[in-house]
Amino acid sequence: MTVSAGVLRTLALAAAIWFTLSFPSPADAGHTKSNKTCVTGVVNCREVWFNDTSKLNVRLFDQFSPTYSYLYSPASAAGASWNSAISGRMYMSFSSQSNETYVYLKTGTNGQYYLGAGIYGIHSPCTHISCYLGSSSPMNVWYSEIYVNVSELGSSSVWLRQWTFAHELGHALMLSHHSSGSNALMYDYPVGDPSGINGPVTLDVGYTSPICGGDTTTWGVRCIYGWN
To answer: 155-191, pLDDT tens digit by residue?
Structure first.
């Protein structure tokens, strides 16, 4: 979920109660729940991903055009920022690829899909059975849906639009919020509009030969998928 600083206090208690009642406790900062990875257990993995030597191809579906065609460029740039960050291990594209996993890019307005003032987007992981809007529960993900809030992004900077897509795509890669890293893409809310980070950095990607546990700065998608 993408939230502005101004609404954090208002949402904090409600969010804590909702997650406590509905799902297991949220994922650890910048990583999946309880330090689990696709290598050590089937936790928040994409079903088409086989092992640490296989490439993850992510097919993006534009379900916001032509009404909101201004979103295409920042969405494309967000995908490209992840491609550059994890070159050779993963590729996001609006074009068809072999052995792909799907992410559907959709829109909503204030009052829909848990979106509201200062909440720019939300990720919904889906299994073969159902979708779980806003969940950070462990699951084997078949596809994802991302809803971006056009009530907020319609008049926002291009920077914020790209940040929103890149941040939610991070959730689609199974990253949680990195609540202690304000200079990370997966920080709880955007920092530095219109010139701050709007693509993944080392805190989001992780390091080669990742250490998956202990020091939270070593976590990231490399840890989740075992990518060296």
So the answer is: 999 999 999 999 999 988 888 887 777 888 988 889 9
Rounded distance between C-alpha atoms, residue 90 and residue 83, angstroms:
6
- Which tokens in the block code for residue 89? 């291990």
pTM (predicted TM-score) = 0.81
> What is the length of the chain?
228
Q: What angle do CA 173, 92, 135 make, to 5 degrees?
A: 25
User: 3-state DSSP call for residue 105?
Assistant: strand
Please give, one letter per residue, the 3-state secondary structure of 142-194: CEEEEEEEHHHHCCCCHHHHHHHHHHHHHHHCCCCCCCCCCCCCCCCCCCCCC
3-state class of 104 per DSSP? Answer: strand
Tell me the angle at which helices 158-172 and 72-85 cross, rounded to the nearest 10 degrees. Answer: 50
Residue 10: partners with Cβ closer than 8 Å, 6 or more residues away: none
In angstroms and rounded to an integer, the radius of gyration of the C-alpha atoms of the chain is 16
CB-CB contact of 95 with 136 (8 Å): no
Mean pLDDT of the chain: 78
